[in-house]
Amino acid sequence: MPPSKGTGHPLRLLGVYAVLLAVIYALVFFTGDKSPEPKLGIDLQGGTRVTLTARTPDGSKPSKDSLQQAQQIIESRVNGLGVAGSEVVIDGNNLVITVPGEDGQQAKALATTAKLYIRPVLTSGQAKPGGGVEQQPEQPGAAVPGQPGAEVPGQPGAEVPGQPGTPGAEVPGETPGAQQQSAPTTAEQAPASDESSSGAAAQNRVFPAPAQAPSTPAPTPEPAQPTPGQPGSEQNTKQEIADAKALRQSTDQQVLLQAMQTMDCSKPDPLAGNDDPNLPLVTCSSDGTQVLVLDKSRIDGQDIKDASSGLNQQSTWVVNLTFKNADAWASLTKDYLQKQVAFTLDSKVVSAPVVNAGPQLGGTTEISGQFNATTAKELANQLKYGSLPLSFATSEAETVSATLGLASLQAGLIAGAIGLIAVLLYCLLYYRMLGFLAGFSLVASGVAVYGIIVLLGRWINFTLDLAGIAGLIIGIGMTADSFVVFFERIKDEMREGRSFRSAVPRGWARAQRTNLSGKTVSLIASVVLYILAAGQVKGFAFTLGLTTVLDVIVLYLVTSPLMMLASRSPFWAKPSVNGLGAVQQIARERKAASGTLAGTGTR
What we know:
Elements: H1 10-30, H2 42-45, E1 47-55, H3 64-79, E2 87-91, E3 94-100, H4 104-109, E4 116-126, E5 169-172, H5 195-198, H6 238-248, H7 253-262, E6 281-284, E7 290-294, E8 299-300, E9 304-311, E10 317-323, H8 326-335, E11 341-345, E12 348-351, E13 354-355, E14 364-368, H9 373-385, E15 391-394, E16 398-400, H10 406-431, H11 434-459, H12 466-495, H13 500-532, H14 536-567, H15 575-578, H16 581-601
Parallel strand pairs: 5-13
Antiparallel strand pairs: 1-3, 1-15, 1-16, 2-3, 4-7, 4-8, 4-11, 5-14, 6-7, 9-10, 10-14, 11-12
């Protein structure tokens, strides 16, 4: 009989699987950190723990709902798809984050972003060591106070020095890929006689420069700066926050200008995460090189739907933003065309790009500048996950020892090896040489699973813990089930009198329906368990689902083609080789018995 559909070219199918393995291990050895080892979970290698202490503007205790919301947001940040092995738990008024590994800085960075606002930039200046700003020449033709949308003469789109990541240009979603062309220009570098260049660093000024402020401004309190190791360094007092607000958040232009002149970006910020979005703000860039005066918030960070990094049409790294409320972003870009808007996290500016076109419709935009893959991804993560209902102070990272350790890992791997050997021995004893084909398929599946786990550790931060190892071991048994079903269907066909050559494709046609039904049920169970479960159970469900899908691939691309090749070989057709002699004997006896009955019936 002709082979069933999909089995006519077994060598091609085996070649496809070989190519897949080659691609997987090319990615393992030639991309990322090139380490061929999977990431291990907290229970196997230990981790790092950071405690976050909630801060509220009035010093009161945070509400339970706000803590739970913050927990969910931070958990989505540190645990990704739920298989990173990280934990975020509520402990009283604190959140405790535990991540695998010993990278304490990474663990603390996961919680550094809290309250995110998008504020227009009114004016800015270079920060001086010890406090204050470099004097900026007055911008001729500055916009009239109270008209934030007024256009400011100068060099449109000039980069603003000191802004992390680029601060360069903001390109509208309608014209993705457009790039900032003008070179960075600062007030210090430009001649004072050149209007366009001298005003580049202060092109967003909407009130007179600090140099024009009255010589005797209204007295304002000096904010108390907490000293590390002293009370208030971890959680600022109500008085410190109140003093900082009185100096740096006011509707009085003179107060803001004086605050700009006295702002010291090198000291800890008592206002961090406690600024009032309905008032202007004097603050620093996150790298401490600039002092900026910002208008009241126009867009809350929770309005950012998504943020991602990627390459544009010019093959340069950019950050793509999508907003929930398209009208708010369109209005902001219309009012501040060729001016800066600042993204502030915990009262510090992480990016202040220039709006190069407006209004930007559709709720999408692109931030471009001097990004690389790392800085673009960092800014995208800050903007995507930067809006929390609370501000937090972080403790020092502490190392957490492995709860189980390498001994448990070795025990789990030994258990898996014993299970694999037991399956192979069973196949060899019961199916003779066909057991070698089953063993080859198991090895092919294991090699692919290992490479995929290594890659998932890099791509989605997947960590392998004991629960995940248990899922892999169960996958071995499920793969063996596929062989058993296939081989038994071949026996059924041979009992009906067919040869080994014709029984294999017919048995495959019957076995694949049974196997697909069983794998579908297992996959559904894995998906439901993954959705409903939490913690390490997610890792178990993930690896179980992964091995289920890979089992189907191996069944079609390895096991079935190998059996088709064996069925066409005189060597494999020998009963002493395939172990099917007893089945063939039963078929002959049935045929002889049916012939005898037929002969008796004719008399």
